[in-house]
Amino acid sequence: MSPKLLSRLLRALAAVLLLAGVPAAAQTTSVAALSDQLAKAERDVATVDRALDARVDDEQRDELRTKALAAKDSATDAAARLQEQLTLVDAKVAQLGTPAAGTSEAGDIRAQRSALQRQHSALDSAVKRGRLLGVTAQQLIDEIAQGQAAQFGERLSAHSPSPLSPTFWRAVLLSAPRDLRRIGATVTSGIVQARTQSRGSVPWQALAGALVFVALLGPGRLALRRVGQRFLIEGAPGHRVRRSGYAIWRIAVGTLTPLCAAFALVQGIRWARLEAASWTPVFDGLIAAMTFAGLTLSATGALLMRNQSSWRVAAISDTTATRLRPFSILLAALSFATIMVDTFNRAVNASGAARVASQVAEASLHLMLLAATLLALGRLRAEQANDEQGQTTRAGLGAVTLLAWGIVLVAGVGLLFGYVGFSLFMVQLVAWGAVLGSATYLLMTAIDDIATSLFKRSSVTGRTLVRALGLRGSSVDQFGVLLSGVLRLIVAVTAFGLLLSPFGAGNGVTSLLGRVSTLAQGVEIGGVSVSPGTIVRGLVVLFVGLALVRAFMGWLEGRYLPATDLDGSGQNSVRLVARYVGIALAVIWALASLGIGMERIALLLSALSVGIGFGLQAITSNFVSGLILLAERPIKIGDLVRVGTDEGDVKRISVRSTEIELADHSTLIVPNSELITKSVLNKTLASPLGRIQIQFSVPLGTQVTRVRELVLESFAAEPAVLDDPAPSAFVDSIADGRILFNCFAHVATPRAAYGARSAVFMALLERFHDEGVDIGTVPQRLEMVAAPTPADDRPEKKRGAPETGDV
After folding, report:
1. Are residues 304 and 413 in the same domain?
2. In DSSP terms, which residues pair with 745 in a beta bridge?
3. Which of 226, 589, 640, 641 is the most buried (most CB within 10 A)?
4. Would the pTM of this model clear 0.90, i.e. be above it?
């Protein structure tokens, strides 16, 4: 692993703090201060430009990129603030107006116009200067990135003799005396410096640093673990939060305690002046090596949690954790040794052959460790497959394992053919990816557990939000899920930027943050500046608008509509129209806050009309039909309607469809266009009454008066039949020896007609039986008619007569 990992990460953190502080000051700044800010940015850009004329190493390149990025942000910020003041000056000039031709202005107005024109010229030139500085700084940043990418590619493609060839070892042996002499000189200088400074006095600073080093790495680290575990047990809500929180705490303790311990040790040596000048890079590398080894050991240990399975976050068995833990310890030790060896090689200015030999050893050890880990994983998967009796394992793990074996194969072949840099990069990338992936997985899990536990309807925070703000419980749950998703996305993007950063590949985290800073300044899209600030402002305006719509709807439904004479269907129509109009106004208000005027909204609507013409005709037709239904109200909620062969009650009318509850309690969803363009039977539109119709026939000679009396008495005996309109019975016709009666009665609602009709039928049948009235069918008579005997009436052919068709 690269020894500059810690310095790169700290530099990335400094870049984060710098970027966070750039747009913080929103108050108006004087033109002089902004001009000084532009001058400083211009000097920094010139410094970076001159420095790039010479060859720079990785550390200098990172410093130059940070300086150029800061200069770009400073110039862009100054230009934006100057543009605001320029807009104010233009507004004042516009307020003065244009002097009329042939007239002279007053002296004070003329002087004010001249002063405003001078301010306009100065501000306009300053704005252009700031924008040009921003473009120049961005070009320098791109040049640095291209140079770094080219150097990284050269390092990967560098070729040396194969480690299996005599040429490789001959070069190492030839340079060995010179390397040993340089190592001896470095060691001797360190010993001489230590003896000189400790002669006649006790280096108590170094001893104190060593004691702090031992205390932090030993009892201090264990005590901090126990303190965090006890705090989480007593104060953290829920088992999930305690597990993930403890994993993050272990990573923090396992990374920071080695860092602080190494820093205390090195600082004690330096305070005691025991450090020689040639040993400064070694001690700096010791701090980086201790920190990275601690991160490796703690991240993998928190993931495996070998000795505390109840606190394990990942779905890993105890056997897997026990088998893999030694490999994580070896990885931490190998990372520490790699950083220290590379640092020592640079400190003693080792020869190229010695450095390549060191890289061969590092790559070989990484390859062996990776291959041993993959073999152990393979044996574990085989044992689990046998225990599960042939059950299939997860395909994702198999794909990752296959990819890792491919990397081992490619890196091994590259090492044998002399591509040492490429091989070392591949295996170190896998090792760093495992460490970074473990930490990222645990951090994302902790974020999800904390966010979803904190913002949950049953939590203290959730109950407080529900009671104080009147939010629904589902809204609190949704906010927790959304917050978790956003934070985890940020962590994932940051981890992706950190993946190649320690190796000097690409732009690293600093460039990633630079892109984020550019987005924070705003991106011009179609004449509209889109930035996180404007997006947040638009979301806030939309939220406020929807809250106002909700408050208005509450007043409308709770106070105003109950005081009107509208029925339920009319109130529903008013509610729907008011809600959609309010939402439309809130959306327009939010778009206006983003700088999107009505002309752009009209352009958007015209573009949508083209899409509607091609693919949204049915939806638009249903929407317009729904508005017509709500306005004209030919069908209202509660009406009994028949659509085709289906009959039921209207339960809900929306702008797209209408819901009809059928007799079997199922729901028929009918598009609104069907109700507007086709025939619909509404049984309760004009009158709520229902009608009963009864038809029967009696033989000719039956006393029709008595039959009519029986029918009317049966109608009167049925409670559902209304007295007004009064029931009636009519003789409809006389045919085939029978008298056909057609009788009518009315009930309160069409829904009661079927039951009332059945009751009247049953009463009539019983009374007709008692009275001896025959209501049977007309008797049918069947006559058998003999078929006539067929006669052969065909004329005989005359003898000698010609046949048809003969000539």
Report:
1. yes
2. 692
3. 641
4. no
